[in-house]
UniProtKB/TrEMBL annotation:
Residues 140-170 are annotated as: Disordered. PROSITE patterns: RESPONSE_REGULATORY (PS50110). This is Response regulator. It comes from the Bacteria. The lineage of its organism: Bacteria, Pseudomonadati, Pseudomonadota, Alphaproteobacteria, Rhodospirillales. SMART domains: REC (SM00448). The keyword Acetylation does not apply. It comes from Kiloniella antarctica.
Amino acid sequence: MDKTLDFGLLDFCVAEDDSFMQKLVKTMLISLGAKNIRLASDGTEAYELLRIKAPDLIFIDWTMKPTTGIDLVKKIREDSDPIISSVPIIMLTAHSKREFVEKAVIAGANDYLVKPVSPLLLQKRIEAIFKNRIPLSHQPENSTAPLARQRRNNNNLSENDETIEISLDD
């Protein structure tokens, strides 16, 4: 049976200081079927949202003030709450230089996308993060809780949870 990711079961957070980019990413996520999308205009606001309720995935822009995207990634990965520290992170930024990608990977980003990004690429990268994970559209009826709640319940991370599939080729 083919398993496809059900975006409607996921909670997303978009940490982006540019309102146009916020709307663009939100529109792309909605077109994929997402229903739960929270927006933050800087790293500080995004971290506060995470502390209230951890999303299943967070998109983080690099250039934000007062807390930059890379500082937010580090703060998330260093959090004492395993639910927050294990949230998948996709850096979505205009910085395309290798040094930025390397810093993001070292800080703990799961993936790195350079703006502008197409809806298809965004979909593929999200699906790659949740490959062999829940929520999938073909799953038992009793397992429809968003991923963050299920992580909170079983708190078992697979060996793939920290795998980063980013090509650093020039």
